[in-house]
Write a structure and sequence with these properties.
Length: 317
């Protein structure tokens, strides 16, 4: 009996000693693998358990999930760094362009006679205002990104603000030779919003239509239960359907648009402001004239082009 008990104890001791040795070996292997993984986190490597053990498996699974999170965060960081670098380059280019023009004309102004001076000063003034607009866009974007922009929600007359914005930007549309049609009510249209934010949204939408729209601009305001819906629809001859999902991305500009003044921030700012007022701003395109009521005086060529619609939805309660 004593020999049997001694044999059982000896077997148990040997088993636990071997088990302990195997687990220790598995931990050493896992540690070695972890050190190899740390050298290059971009590789899709995971830890393996050489010796089956339920508790150690849970530990290694948790470690592998942490490694996956680290890889994902690293990829996001590298993506943000590339985007940031691109944004810095874009900002530098946008600021340098009007500055170069201004400096060039200032040098020319020193040598110009009285007949040319007035025209040169007008060009310098126009480029200075363009630069002021660029800096204002960057400033607004910076405030929104850092959440320093205070939005105060209150009942505002969105219809009145829209009508005033239309009058303020009518010359932009006129210079672009756009046919304008609007169905805006004259009575107060109350919505939940911030007056300054609404002004900026409408200003950015009008400026976007004036710069990149073609042919016509149709503006409508519809009152619905619980919200109001404001739509800007314009011709978009150079727009491609695949561009639409990217229109609200920061600094996104189509190739043809880079020759025009702009930052690629206007729509991103407008969308951010709309969402800060618990509303939404979306974009959609129609490949032909179906479903769009064109002004009767638009020519046939205009009605055959791609149309782009921005829809602003605001709450009324």
């Amino acid at each position: 009996m004593i020999y049997l008990l001694f044999a059982v104890l000896l077997f148990a001791g040997g088993y636990f000693t071997l088990r302990c040795f195997l687990i220790k070996h598995a931990l050493k292997e896992a540690c070695r693998e972890l050190q190899e993984i740390q050298k290059d986190l971009s590789q899709n490597q995971i830890l393996h358990l050489a010796t089956p053990d339920q508790d150690l498996e849970h530990l290694l699974c948790a470690t592998n999930r942490m490694l996956e999170d680290l890889r994902r965060e690293r990829q996001n960081y590298e993506k943000r760094e590339k985007q940031f670098q691109h944004q810095i380059e874009q900002i530098s280019h946008d600021l340098r362009t009007p500055l170069t023009v201004i400096l060039g004309y200032l040098k020319f102004l020193k040598q110009a006679d009285g007949s040319d001076a007035a025209e040169i000063l007008e060009i310098i003034e126009r480029k200075t205002y363009a630069m002021e607009h660029l800096v204002s866009q960057f400033y607004d974007f910076s405030r929104l990104s850092s959440h320093d922009c205070q939005i105060t929600l209150q009942q505002v007359d969105a219809g009145r603000i829209l009508r005033e914005a239309l009058l303020d930007h009518y010359q932009i549309l006129e210079r672009s030779q756009m046919v304008l049609e609007h169905t805006l009510p004259t009575h107060p249209v109350m919505a939940l919003g911030d007056p300054w934010a609404l002004e900026r949204i409408f200003a950015n939408l009008f400026q976007n239509a004036g710069r990149y729209g073609t042919g016509f601009l149709k503006i409508s305001l519809e009152e619905q239960p619980g919200n109001i819906c404001i739509q800007f629809t314009n011709g978009a001859e150079s727009l491609r359907p695949e561009d639409v999902p990217h229109l609200f991305e920061r600094f996104y500009m189509q190739d043809f648009a880079r020759t025009k003044s702009g930052t690629g921030l206007g729509l991103a700012i407008a969308k951010s402001l709309a969402e800060s007022m618990k509303g939404s701003l979306t974009a959609s395109c129609i490949p032909d004239a179906s479903g769009v009521s064109f002004p009767a005086f638009c020519d046939e060529k205009t009605s055959d082009k791609l149309t782009l619609t921005f829809t602003l939805t605001l709450m009324t309660i």
